[in-house]
Amino acid sequence: MSKRITEEVVRKVFTKSTEKKEDEDSIEIVELDGNDLIQMLMEDFSVEEEIAQAAVMANVGMNDIDELFQWCMDNQLDENVIETFCKKYNEAKKMDCEINSKDIEESKPTFSQFTKVIVERISNADISLQKKLKEIWTSFLNSVETAETSDFLNFECIGSGLQTIHDHTSTSINRTYPGYLTSGKPNLVLCQREDIHSVALTIYNHDAEKPLPDMDEVLLCNEETTKEDVELICRRAFNDKMGKIYSVLYAEKLDFNISINTENLLMKADIPNRDYQLVFICCKDSVQQSYLATALDKYRAQVPEFKDPSRLKLYIENHLTRHGEHEKTDPTSMRAIQSEKSGMGKSL
């Protein structure tokens, strides 16, 4: 941005100025700014936009449209003059936008100031103390739903910002869903307890070029699993845009209340992604005691048996082996940390 363009010049170009037109009966005040003058030159005098912009910038503060048109006639063939002043106009316009944004931000009160005004206004009202407290609380709740203060963001704004960051930094995986599973349905898979991990890996191994399942794609259930844990992975599937496969392992361990909540969620939730990919894997020996397994029985799927475990071993090795200059000295990209002491990095 040119240092020769000052804030004062910017305000002169883009702030409304006044032109007085007198007749024998009255005085009419016409408000014009740089944009108005440019528009008049283009529409009333058929001047090209760049020449009109250059004329306004070369004659900052001038409000006489005829004088501006004459400048256009005198300089329209001088490309260097037009380019110079047109460039200055664009820089001034950019600065004007920055100034306006700053002024708007500074004009907003802080959250404490906003709250203080609410309290003072309601305290002066001739109503009971109970109604005053109710009015203050209602006004406070309404204020946090808007962006009326300069130092406060509500959860909606924070969520929108985080979603934008996520959308710009995430990479689509687009896993291929096996044909024996149905998109848009909560698939149920039953197998022996010792085969649960192999079955889960088989689902992801169906598209062997894609990476191993990420931590947000798999939930290992136990007696301490909460309904929020299950609801979270389900909602990830319902809103997925990355082509991921979500699997819930040992789902038969979920208690009755969590199972009821999960069933209701699957039936009544608002699901933006109707082709979501979600699998519940249960131990077949324990499904008799599982309400969720019974509820999902109509969505049962059969995973083909792979008697050769070398395919899964190769799938894991391919994605855990480091390639390049560190391949010989440090061949794996995985570390197993085991310690009875805290602070050793087990939760990383």
What would you say this structure looks like, in words?
The chain has 348 residues and is of the alpha/beta class. Helices cover 47% and strands 9% of the residues. It has helices at residues 7-14, 34-44, 49-58, 65-75, 79-107, 111-123, 129-144, 155-169, 196-205, 227-238, 256-268, 291-295, 310-320, and strands at residues 17-22, 27-32, 186-191, 218-220, 246-249, 278-283, 300-301. The protein has a five-stranded parallel sheet, sandwiched between helices. Helix 10 (227-238) links the parallel strand 4 and strand 5 (246-249). Helix 10 (227-238) packs parallel to helix 11. The longest helix has 29 residues, at 79-107. Mean pLDDT is 81; it is low at 16-31.
Q: What does the secondary structure layout of this molecule look like, with pairings?
A:
Elements: H1 7-14, E1 17-22, E2 27-32, H2 34-44, H3 49-58, H4 65-75, H5 79-107, H6 111-123, H7 129-144, H8 155-169, E3 186-191, H9 196-205, E4 218-220, H10 227-238, E5 246-249, H11 256-268, E6 278-283, H12 291-295, E7 300-301, H13 310-320
Parallel strand pairs: 3-6, 3-7, 4-5, 5-6
Antiparallel strand pairs: 1-2
Helix pairs in contact: 1-5, 2-3, 3-4, 3-5, 6-7, 10-11
